[in-house]
Write a structure and sequence with these properties.
- By secondary structure, this protein is mainly β.
- The chain is about 10% helix and about 65% strand.
- It has an eight-stranded antiparallel barrel with strand order 1-2-3-4-5-6-7-8.
Length: about 160
């Protein structure tokens, strides 16, 4: 909760600091950055916004391989821009996150699929901060007969550099 409040303070501060800019932030087809979210994935993120469209595609990847232990987090998310403002965009999003973890030959697979809404805060010409909230269906490990499913709230955050 402490980090969430700090991030909100950071967003408010940067919006106030950049409020005096006379030019709107530049639009960018490509963005690269860090992302952390149950639906949008954990790790390095890449975003692509095709010209003349309200859709944005986001891919996130985090591979970790350490002597007998592997963790791979791969996700794809689709964002739809409902409202575009000078410094803030309001989005709907949906996505799916695939996590596989293996320790000494045994592996578990988790799939998280969800949707929600969020905001993209344009921090000048170079950065954007993405905050999302929604619900997700968590598919927990186990054999096909004893898999369990959970439907829980989710939160997402990402900081991206505009290329």
């Amino acid at each position: 909760m402490k980090y969430f409040l700090l991030s909100i303070c950071f967003v408010l501060f940067t919006n106030i600091a950049f409020a005096g800019d006379s030019l709107p932030p530049k639009k960018s087809k490509y963005q690269f950055g860090l992302n952390a979210g149950f639906v949008t994935g954990f790790g390095l993120g890449f975003r692509y916004t095709p010209p003349s469209t309200k859709f944005m595609h986001q891919f996130t990847l985090l591979p970790i391989i350490v002597s007998g232990t592997t963790l791979v987090d791969v996700s794809y998310s689709l964002f739809y821009r409902l409202k575009e403002r000078k410094y803030t965009d309001f989005n709907l999003y949906c996505g799916s996150n695939f996590i596989t973890a293996g320790i000494d030959g045994t592996s578990n697979f988790i799939n998280i699929t969800g949707a929600g809404f969020g905001f993209d805060f344009k921090l000048g010409n170079y950065f954007s901060l993405n905050l999302n909230s929604g619900y997700a269906l968590y598919n927990t490990p186990g054999s096909s007969s004893d898999r369990s499913y959970m439907f829980l709230p989710t939160g997402e955050i990402g900081l991206f550099y505009k290329l």
